[in-house]
Amino acid sequence: MPLGLLALAVGGFGIGLTEFVIAGLLPEVARDFDVTETAAGWLISGYALSVAVGGVALTLAASRLPRKHVLLALMVLFVVGNLLSAIGTSYAVMMTGRVVAALCHGAFFGIGSVVAAGLVSKDRAASAIALMFAGLTTANVLGVPLGTLLGQEYGWRSTFWAITAIGVLALVAMALLVPASVNARPTATDAAPGGGDASRPHGIRQELSAFANRQVWLSLLITVLGFGGMFGAFTYIAFTLTEVSGFASSSVPWLLILFGLGLFVGNLLGGRAANRSVPRTLTWVLAILTVAMVGFALTAQSQVLTMVSLVLMGAFGFATVPALQLRIMTYAGSAPTLASGANIAAFNVGNALGAWLGGVTIAAGLGYVSTIWAGAAMAAAALVTLLVAERVGS
Prior knowledge:
The protein is mainly α. The chain is built from 15 helices and no strands.
């Protein structure tokens, strides 16, 4: 295993913790700032929208810069953002910190996906991407529950101080473990992931050329709908668990472990399946995700079935990630970096859309289970879009 993959996974761990831990602390944050659940949810939606902007803008701006330097600079931005959240004494400062930290997210995973895929043979590209994202899923298995517990015991700001420290650790890990070859400048032999040195950046014009392929756009839409459906339900999961399923607030961190375990397993198995066939993997995963979320919505009052649903939603929700990322990189051809960053942005546009739809249904008085129904509808729409995309071809 290339050590560079481990370094990327460490960075992914810190970023994943920042993105997801807020969901478990949302009730505490809402009370502290005296805002509604919907307003508190914007700390998640705002983060997601900032990822979407940063994923495209920063990836494009850094298209000709040495990749290792870019990754390190992005991690510095991450540390600064989480420090702002840790010291935030108002909702505005907290939101500013979330936005700053989020700007690095899309570019980090976009550039990191291309580098990860280029560090291994072509037939292992999806698994390499999955390994990088394993840092993010590990954050959900261990970091999010422990971060939620820490925030409940010592105040939510203590969690963001811990994340800041992890960011510094990730910065050091990448400086030491990411190989110097990622500083290579572009050459005529630079190729797509798995087919050349993916650490070498392209010019802006060549990166933009990937968007002439309609399958790149369809891939982005599938990502928005498929991942957004799962995340929309997850955004308000703490409220669902306590107000619908009847769990105590102190149980939320431990229940999030189940969700995190699903993410971790789904990510790795989804990567292996995508190595064999991306279309087949996405078709089955999106179909099962839709069914699992419908089942969750119907049985949310049952604590036992809710725990099962958390695992299934996490597993099949995140099993889409390696396949979705590899799909767009494949159709982008020899200029995958910006398309990869755009797909990370699409994940977070979906996150914001799912969280917004969930907030709308709650504000309309439809209850916390309505967020799960909205997520299931988005997942079903992603499946339909995929089936249409496979029929129309390039």
